[in-house]
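We store amino acids, tokens; thus:
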Amino acid sequence: MGFFGKISTREEFTVKAEIQAIDIQGFNGSVTWVPVDADGPRIVAEKEVRGVTGRGLDEVMADLKIEDFSTPEKLVLRATAPETFSKMVGSQVTFTIYASPQQIKSFQARTSNGAISVEVDFEGRLELQTSNGRIEIQSASGTIHASTSNGRIEFGKLALSSSSSIRTLNGRIAGQAVFPEEGEFRFETHNGSIELRIPHETSGSFDARTNNGTVEYRVGEDQRLDRRQVLVQRDAGPTVWVSTSNGRISILGY
């Protein structure tokens, strides 16, 4: 008779100098991008299997693979879930990316259960997707698409260069955004508040609405506070939709 426990191991993948894009896909476990440390540019995949100890867990670990589909300029890693095993309680792969944002111009990260965190100042194309977990972005400029089903989305400053979207079903959205002269931009949640800060001189059209809550829009000379919906047209510019089903919306200038 075995005891409940876990086994873990790790794999490392070098981020070579010619790599300009990273694409990570997991199933259970977080994805985190942090600055390069003394050990150099790399991706660390930490694999873990939990269950009743014994020979079976080793077999499950052997079946938990990281597949490498990389090309000379793009590093592509896929974590494949092991087949169901009667003694296994759970398994996961957590990815930690140590890479310079000056080198990487496209970053894609997808996981089913786990948080995604970008803890560098990124410039380029950013695509982040999880089903259960929060998404955090330190700061970024470029095209941004971030979505989760259950979890908040928070960001520092997003300097958006083309149409982008920030979406969650259950969780708040909060951060600072700067928009280009044209494009379509969506900030959407079903259950949670939205707090957005934008420059006072921001132009374009804004459609902010909630089913249960208030909408506050205070940017430049436009000062509005209404229940459910605020529509503002500020000269030609981008189109911005901000919506929630349950929660307040706050769009404030700085």
